[in-house]
Every structure is written in C-alpha cells, then in structure tokens.
Amino acid sequence: MEGKNIPMVDLRSQYHRLKGEIDEAILTVNESTAFINGPQVKEFATHLEEYLEIPFVIPCGNGTDALQIALMALGLRPGDEVIVPAFNYVAAVETVTLLGLVPVLVDVDPWTFNINPWQIEQCISRRTRAIIAVHLFGQACDMGIILGIAKSYHLYVIEDNAQSLGTGYICEDGTVKKAGTLGHVGTTSFFPSKPLGCYGDGGALMTSDRRLADRIRMIASHGQTEKYHHKLVGCNSRLDTIQAAILDVKLKYLDEFNDNRIKLAVRYDEMLSSCKHIEVPQKSTFSQHIFHQYTLVVKDGKRDSLQQYLKEKGVASTVYYPIPLQDQEAFKDTAFIPYKIKVAGDLSKSVLSIPIYSEMTVETQDYIIKTILEADQKI
Ligand SMILES: *Cc1c(COP(=O)(O)O)cnc(C)c1O
C-alpha cells in the first residue's frame, strides 16, 4: 500500500467501465457530423426531465452560463439585489455582478455549509428580487424556509444544483423531490468532476414554468424566436452534441454513482467519528446527501497540518473554499454585506474535502482512513 497517489476523483476508471457505450455514442455523433444541436441534445434533455420529474430541461454551455441565463430570464434589472451565500464557488456572485445586479452576501450554516435560512430575512431590502440557493457538496438547502420567505417577499428562487444532481429534498409531508426542481428555476453543471459530468463543459437549466422555459431557450440562443429574429438580448450557450451523447449514457448510472459515494461516506462516518481533531460531515433532516464532496471540519487550527500529512502519504485533499466571497478582491466594491458574516470565514480555515468517487475500492478507502487516523494522533 506504499507509494500511493490517490486523487480526489478518478474519472479514468469510470470511463473504462463505460468505455464501450461511451465510445459508441461519440462515434455515432462523429459519423452524423451533427455536432451542434444534434438529436442527442433533445434526447438527453428529455431523459433528464424524466429523471428529475420536471417538465422543462434546457441544456446550455456550462453551469456558470446557466446561472447567468436564469438571472436574465427572470428579467432582473441593474441595481436589483440577489441574495447569495458567502461560502460558495464564485459563479453565483460573479454572474450577479456581471449583470449589474447587487450580490447580497449571506452567511452559511456551520453544519451543512449551506446558506443560513434564518439570516436571509435580515438581508432583504426593497430592492431584493431573488435568492440563489446553492446546494453545496451534495446536500440541499433548507428549501422549506427559503421558499416560505420567497413567497412572503415576492422573490424568485434560483437553485444552483451543480453539486447535488440527484439529491432528494425531503418535504414536510415526507415526499421527496429532486433538488433543483423546487424553486422557480434550477441550474446545473456537467463539468467532468460533478455528479453528472461530461467530457468537457456543459450545463442545464430546469423549470416547471413553460413561459420561463421559452425565455431561457430563447436567451441561450441569441434571444432568437427563429433564425435571425432576435426578440431579446441573449447569448450563445449550447451543450455540444458529443457531450449530450456522453451524458445520456452516464445519466443511466447517476443513481449508482451517487449510491456508491453514499456507501463510502457511511464508512468514512463510522471510522472517522472518533477522531480528536476532526468532525465528519453533518446531515440535515430535510435533505439526502449524495456526497459530491466529503468535507471534514478540522478543529484546533490543525487543518493545514492534516492536509500536509495526507499529501506526504499520497492522499489528495482540497480546501473548498479557501477564501470566502466577502474577502475576494473582485467583489469588494460591489458585494453588499448587510449582516455580519462569521461562519463562512471560519469554514474557509477549517474545512478539508477528502477523496470520494464512485469507483473507489475498499482497499483505497481503508488506506485513506488509516492515514487520517494516524494523522489525528500526530498533528
Ligand atoms: C461547478 C459549479 C458551478 C459552475 O459550473 P461550470 O460548469 O464550471 O461553469 C456553479 N456553481 C457551483 C456551486 C459549482 O460547483
């Protein structure tokens, strides 16, 4: 077991497992030469609609475009405020800023890492128009509260579901709905390492609202109603046919990929919960967790020593996210922080995500666990 080199994700073993089907799907597109808007794009969108149980899925170029298109389709105007979590990937705050909207940064919950729903209300002003609920690391936000607040204040809810495709949100009556289908519009990314990843860039939007779906489709295609008839200012954001063909193969395995990670997470939970310096990820009562990331909170300022120890033993680990958005230079003049943000900064100093991927073997996981247990004694 020495001389290890364990990555965060192992896309190669997954490809090798599905190689026959995937290669065939790619070759079919090559032969057809329908590289843009080939029939596979529509087929994949239909299959994703069925999987998510939502009427409209509109593919686009990537997950960041999806957020931008969602904001454009909702008709937000410059100066309108949009609530976004401070502990997050850059895409939401970036697209909001790019459109001349004002990102209002809100702190997150220390256990789930998702936006703290109780702080949202304090951050609402007369200009607030939307909330972006980001379902981080595989777990859905507290949509019950968020949708309730949105209803009272007449706000739109955009769900950024790039990291949690397939996760179920558990409604109050016990029914389970797929994350990304609860708000006005959901977005996702098919970046290779995401729960459903293609072999390049890709993304999609999802909604139950036909009019919104039409606007989204139009905006993603230069605001066209028909070729050379531009009704809205749009952009050019498409999912390549080859990527759609690959995704259509992989969608059949999405639940299996997610279940495999859930099983690994159960083992991590069991084996690591006795550590002195480490807290295993917490699960909320209102969401499933597909563990896009398995993220530890390392106490007592020991995060960097743990990461260093793992590195020496050949185990990758990553800090998602090392700098909270309120401290990012790009947004210092534009982001608005109405209420004190503390948790996001604390998490940036204490979180550490460790390898978890559907093809991980028990032996590999045992080595990671053994190394972490050792580290916990030594750091
Ligand atoms: C990856 C990611 C995005 C952006 O997706 P791209 O396809 O890389 O543009 C947006 N939001 C979140 C939360 C992400 O993790």
From TrEMBL:
Q: Which CDD domains match?
A: AHBA_syn (cd00616)
N6-(pyridoxal phosphate)lysine modifications at: 194
**A Pfam family of this chain:** DegT_DnrJ_EryC1
User: Which GO biological process entries does UniProt record here?
Assistant: polysaccharide biosynthetic process
Q: Which UniProt keywords apply?
A: Pyridoxal phosphate
A GO MF annotation of the entry reads: pyridoxal phosphate binding
Question: Does the keyword Methyltransferase belong to this entry?
Answer: no
**Which residue positions are annotated as catalytic?**
194
Record's Gene3D superfamilies? Answer: Aspartate Aminotransferase, domain 1, Type I PLP-dependent aspartate aminotransferase-like (Major domain)
The keyword Membrane is annotated on this UniProt entry: no
Member of which family?
Belongs to the DegT/DnrJ/EryC1 family.
The protein, known as: dTDP-4-amino-4,6-dideoxygalactose transaminase
